[in-house]
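Structure in, sequence out. Go:
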């Protein structure tokens, strides 16, 4: 599994900067040691992921098993799957006291 600076495919991240500040994403692809592609299944869909610098992302320890398995096995990943995973994560964050 490709991992740069601790970030992994399927990992939950939150944007620290830009107009999408504090928005939750999932890492779709790791480009290099500086950039990743992130998606949320809504505004940033699989067809047009957002290229973000890793230093502009807050990394959560949690990783979406669904996204990681689909990406590593080259199986079909849909925007609906991404949205459901982020909704589950958001609900867990609210239950744990937020950010």
């Amino acid at each position: 599994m490709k991992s740069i600076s601790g970030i992994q495919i399927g990992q939950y991240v939150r944007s620290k900067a830009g107009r999408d500040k504090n928005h939750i994403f999932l890492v779709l692809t790791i480009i290099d040691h500086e950039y990743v592609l992130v998606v949320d299944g809504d505004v940033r869909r699989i067809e047009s992921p957002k290229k973000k610098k890793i230093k502009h992302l807050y990394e959560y320890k949690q990783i979406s098993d669904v996204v990681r398995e689909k990406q590593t096995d080259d199986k079909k990943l849909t925007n609906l799957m991404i949205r459901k995973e982020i909704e589950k994560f958001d609900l867990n964050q609210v239950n744990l006291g937020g950010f």
